[in-house]
Amino acid sequence: MTFDGSWKVDRNDNYEKFMEKMGISLVKRKLAAHDNLQITLQQTGDKFHVKETSNFRTLEMDFTSGVSFEYSMADGTELTGSWTLEGDTLKGSFTRKDNGKLLATTRVVQGDELTQSYSYEGVDAKRIYKRI
User: How many Cα atoms occupy the beta-carbon half-sphere of 64 within 13 Å?
Assistant: First the structure.
C-alpha cells in the first residue's frame, strides 16, 4: 500500500513556529526539532499500524480510517479525532482536549518522501521524511 514503509524525518518547514502556536515550551520545541523521529506505517485496507520512535519515546498505535481515537503528542497534549484515507492522502482532523481547537494534518507519499503537513490556528508547517 502507499504508506507502507519506514520513514525518518529529513527536514522541517516552519515546524518550530507551529509548535510555538501549539503552546509547546521553548525547551521542548528545541528538543523536538532534533528528535530524529522515525515512523513505520503498515496499511491493510483501511486499517493502519503506526510505530513512532524518537530520541524521547516510542509509541505504537492502530487506527481505522474514519474512526475516532485518542492520541497524546510527545509534549503531553491530548487529542481526539481521526485519520481518513482519501485516495493517496491521509487527512487527519484532531481536536485538542484542553482547549477544543482543531489541528488539521495530512500525510502524502511522493516518491521516496512522506510529507506530513500541519495547520493550527493559522500556522502551517511541514515535516518531510525520507524512506529508510
Answer: 2
- Expressed as residue numbers, the domain containing 36 is 5-131
Distance CA 41, CA 92 (A): 15
Nearest partner of 86 among 29, 46, 34, 28, judged by Cα: 46
Locate cell 487527512: which residue? 91
C-beta atoms surrounding 122 within 10 Å: 6
pTM (2 decimals)? 0.91
| Range 60-89 average pLDDT | 94
In the chain, beta strands by DSSP E = 5-13, 38-44, 47-53, 58-64, 69-72, 78-86, 89-96, 102-110, 113-120, 123-131
54 vs 36: CA distance, rounded Å:
6
Give the CATH number for residue 96: 2.40.128.20
